[in-house]
Design goal:
Layout lengths: L2 H9 L3 E7 L3 H12 L4 E5 L14 E2 L11 H17 L4 E11 L6 H14 L8 E3 L1 H7 L8 E12 L3 H14 L3 E4 L1 E9 L2 E8 L5 E11 L5 H7 L6 E14 L7 E5 L5 E7 L2 E5 L3 E3 L8 H14 L13 E12 L15 E5 L4 E5 L6 H14 L17 H13 L14 H9 L3 H10 L15 H10 L5 H8 L2 H4 L2 H5 L2 H11 L3 H11 L2
Parallel strand pairs: 1-2, 1-10, 2-7, 4-12, 10-18
Antiparallel strand pairs: 3-6, 4-6, 5-6, 8-9, 9-10, 11-14, 11-15, 11-16, 12-13, 13-14, 17-18
Length: 534
């Protein structure tokens, strides 16, 4: 029996200290923090883990430089500390990257004044990154010839950081950590309602794959449903100080337009930040910020044209980008926490800081807003709030985040070197296999080495134009609760983002991967994916 099915059986068979609703970044870090400290935790998500907002970010973990314009220096200070903390504890995954910013003529502030803001930002960030540089128009053209300097006034370069792989993978690794500490988690399980009886929450849930009803008991309930926090609070009659408003953001993925490893940053035609972000062999371009009324959104023709028009205007491209240039699209809503009901999501004036509303009488938490940069603080705050409500935390000092100790990494690297691991795969890959496996799986990469020792063909790449080996797909099948093909192609990996749909469908290795992931259901899952993603 696979892990998901086993966990679903356990959900209704045991009492839990805490049940978490939602497997995005807020729910994932809450589960990891609590489970590591000895709390008996369960987590469910109505879709896949990181299946909504947490898989549609810009893949950036930054200190909030844009909030400086609104003089939110305390927030910037907090986010810079959080960014530095992430970089320190996840050096393989969260890495410094340079932002190469061009300011157009007529911008609302003098360029040198904005540059001084980056110097102050570096200071607030405790000099943790490389210092900023002022860029003349000549320097911009010389160092980044792809930037159109016709209407440029000047620019600057500064540092923040990004997720080397992707946001959804980063989130799932917290889910994986929570499982290692005993959390019972299951995707595609939806809460349909909950009520407080005595000293327990009784939650009615449903397996959205089979339709089976599930009842879950827990002492405390955490609503980490992301954009749907307000919806579930209505079901449970929770009154909160905060609510959400939504801002839609999209990104377009195209073939790599520059070999630069920097994020090219501009202010778009409407004054909002606009990024050209490296994504391995591809480039991610965006984003938009559009006020929407609910989380159910999609990319519109106007959205696409806005991004394409700005890219073509701001860049020197041999061939202008068109609709046919688009390999894939990302679209999601940012749930922005506000006090009261209503409000307007202004990119400059409304920040993405998180808020946790607590009801001590019913032991209920609601997590609003938030971003990847601040995720470790969310986990710690959740533990503190539940502790203040009287929930027992058996091991309060247990560390719950970070890459394995250097000694573990050194042993892994030594074993991989003795195996000549990097010589077993395609030498043209963008990253050595040894490094890639460690970055993705940490200490769990040890088991992959054992599989490759037993069968060297496990190190071969299975799907064309996608850097995933056979043993990784085998591990995903056994340990990562892959329920639909999209779970693997879009969230455990970023294959569907960087490989065109037609190439993917014609890939000989994809069906073989389906057989590993789904066994007898391989064809059904393959057909389901391409029916949902024509």
């Amino acid at each position: 029996m696979k892990l998901r099915e086993t966990n679903i059986q356990k959900l209704s068979g045991e009492d839990y200290d805490v049940l978490i609703l939602g497997g995005g970044i807020n729910g994932a870090v809450s589960a990891a923090a609590l489970a590591a400290k000895g709390v008996k935790v369960a987590l469910i998500d109505k879709g896949d883990f990181a299946g909504f907002t947490s898989s549609n970010s810009s893949n950036l973990a930054w200190g909030g430089i844009k909030y400086m314009e609104n003089l939110e220096f305390f927030l910037v200070n907090k986010l810079c500390k959080s960014r530095n903390h992430l970089m320190k504890h996840y050096p393989s995954t969260v890495q410094e990257i340079r932002f190469f910013t061009t300011i157009q003529k007529g911008f609302r502030m003098p360029v040198f004044f904005v540059f001084l803001g980056t110097v102050f930002y570096w200071l607030i960030g405790r000099f943790f990154t490389q210092p900023p540089r002022y860029l003349t128009t000549g320097k911009i053209g010389k160092e980044e010839s792809v930037v159109n300097t016709t209407n440029a006034k000047a620019g600057f370069e500064y540092s923040d950081c990004y997720l080397y792989d992707n946001d959804a993978r980063f989130v799932f690794n917290f889910i994986r950590t929570s499982l290692n500490f005993g959390c019972i988690a299951a995707n595609y399980v939806e809460s349909t309602g909950a009520k407080r009886e005595g000293d327990h929450w009784l939650v009615d849930a449903r397996d959205t794959i089979t339709g089976k009803a599930i009842k879950i008991r827990s002492k405390a309930l955490i609503n980490a449903c992301g954009p749907y926090v307000d919806v579930h609070n209505t079901l449970t009659q929770q009154n909160t100080v905060h609510h959400h408003v939504f801002s839609k953001g999209i990104h377009l993925i195209v073939d790599r337009i520059t070999d630069s490893k920097r994020v090219l940053t501009f202010f778009a035609s409407d004054g909002r930040l606009f990024f050209v972000i490296p994504m391995g062999p591809k480039t991610c371009i965006g984003t938009t910020d559009t006020q929407v009324e609910n989380p159910e959104t999609s990319v519109t023709d106007d959205d696409r044209q806005f991004v394409l028009d700005n890219a073509n205007s701001l860049l020197n491209l041999t061939t202008p980008l068109t609709i046919d240039s688009i390999i894939s699209e990302r679209c999601g809503v940012r749930p922005l926490a506000i006090e009261g009901v209503g409000g307007k999501a202004d990119w400059v004036k409304l920040s993405r800081k998180h808020a946790i509303d607590a009801n001590g009488e019913t032991k209920h938490l609601s997590i609003f807003g938030g971003k990847l940069t601040d995720c470790l603080n969310v986990g710690d705050e959740v533990v503190d709030k539940l502790k203040s409500m009287g929930l027992r935390i058996p091991f309060p000092d247990q560390k719950w985040y970070g890459e394995p100790h250097d000694a573990v990494k050194d042993e892994y690297m030594h074993q991989a070197k003795l195996m000549a691991l990097d010589g077993l795969t395609d030498p043209s890959s963008s990253e050595p296999l040894t490094q890639r496996l460690w970055r993705r799986y940490g200490a769990n990469a040890m088991s992959l080495l054992e599989n490759i020792r037993n069968d060297p063909t496990d190190a071969t790449l299975l799907i064309e134009n996608a850097e995933y080996t056979r043993c990784e797909i085998e591990q995903a099948a056994n340990r990562e609760m892959i329920t639909k093909l999209e779970d693997f192609l879009r969230r455990r990996s970023k294959i569907s983002l960087v490989v065109r749909r037609g190439e993917l469908k014609n890939s000989k290795g994809l069906m073989e991967a389906c057989l590993i992931l789904f066994g007898e259901q391989a064809q059904e899952k393959y057909d389901e994916y391409f029916a949902d993603n024509p």
